[in-house]
Amino acid sequence: MRYKIAITGATGFIGKPLAARLAQAHDLISVARSEGATFVGDITQKATVEQLYAYKPDVLIHLAATNEGDMQALFSSNIIGTLNLVSQAPESLKKVILISSYAVYPSSKTPHTEDDAPAPDTEYGLTKHIAEQIAIHYCRKKGITLIILRPGTVYGPGNNKGVIHAFIRQASEGRISVSRDGSQMRSMIHRDDIIDAILAVLDHENHNTIFNVAGDEQASVLELAQIISMLAGKAEITHTPANTAKPGDLMISSERLLSKGYWRPQITLKEGIGDLLR
Question: Which CATH number does 4-154+188-213 carry?
Fold first, then answer.
């Protein structure tokens, strides 16, 4: 089925390649804060959202967000932007795909399922959880199907943030610095696998739902460092004291989405990291 799709964050790490793939099969209008989208705008401004919705889209894919800055910056981007989009949703809009984060969950020694109650450890996670609740409220009120995706830590080409990219930069200088003993666990997912998940739920899901989205492998921070060290040519691994402002183990299970049968991650950690090092 060919949709009219509005996408936010369309020039970002995930948004740019996603928009390129969507444009092959759908009518697309995109907005971002930088050049490269259909138009440049800020979704924290209602005028920008009005301009986006003048197109009368069937589907909204909401990617625009930030995990940087103080609480005011996080609140503005992650909460106000989402509020504007769902509260101003036009009658034409039938489906919203909201890209949230596994940061809505608390640290845990076992992988979270979607049935676990959110209890974020970070301000970023808090704003993503509030954004989810706002989207649930307005989509229910307006009769819009809402699909929330909670990806793990996303890595891949075009991104210079996150633990994998930090370790790759350090490895190029011959030494990787790991916080604590490196035993803290993470759920990772390659950029292309989360894009495949977005496209899959676009085509197959027509009911309100929440999906965790992660790769098949859970990995400790130390294991990530070891993979990068091995692939980059045996960079030395050192350990530094804990930063107590950062969460410990954070893992999710993707079993709910996997059980649907229309999506499965394709890129292993070694393959994804290897591609970044080439």
Answer: 3.40.50.720
